[in-house]
Specification:
Layout lengths: L7 E2 L4 E6 L2 E6 L1 H7 L2 E5 L6 E2 L4 E7 L3 E5 L4 E6 L1 H5 L3 H4 L8 E4 L10 H8 L1
Antiparallel strand pairs: 1-2, 2-3, 3-9, 4-6, 5-8, 6-7, 8-9
Subunit structure: The glycine cleavage system is composed of four proteins: P, T, L and H.
Family: Belongs to the GcvH family.
Protein name: Glycine cleavage system H protein
Length: 123
């Protein structure tokens, strides 16, 4: 499983890449592998206000439906229309073209995991 060093992670298998006051969010390689072939992605609307821990969407696969939880408080400033049109991007490139939402935030929550801590949750 790939765990890029430039991100933070949640125990719900989501990643957060911080650039200034914008966080790009997606699901991890572990999560997409566990889900199997992703066939549908539901994302929050641009402008939606997220609260860390609340359900904000779904990723549906041929095996199951996975809930997406907001890893941070903030406002959705962009969604990845490409994954809505081509959900398989979540499988083929979870840390790149398969990103899900971009969120403007004021502060990162405590409890995000560094790559080593996230990897430790997988064993």
């Amino acid at each position: 499983m790939t765990v890029p060093a430039d991100r933070q992670y949640t125990t719900d298998h989501e990643w957060v890449l911080v650039e200034g006051d914008i966080a790009t969010v997606g699901i991890t390689d572990f999560a997409q592998d566990a889900l199997g072939d992703v066939v549908f992605v539901e994302l929050p609307a641009v402008g939606a206000t997220l609260a860390a821990g609340e359900q904000v969407g779904e990723v549906e696969s041929t095996k199951s439906v996975g809930e997406l939880f907001a890893p941070i408080d903030g406002e959705v400033v962009e969604i990845n229309d490409a994954v809505v049109e081509q959900p398989e991007l979540v499988n083929s490139d979870p840390y790149g073209a398969g990103w899900l939402v971009k969120v403007r935030f004021a502060a990162l929550p405590e409890g995000l995991l560094d790559p080593a801590a996230y990897e430790a949750t997988l064993s």
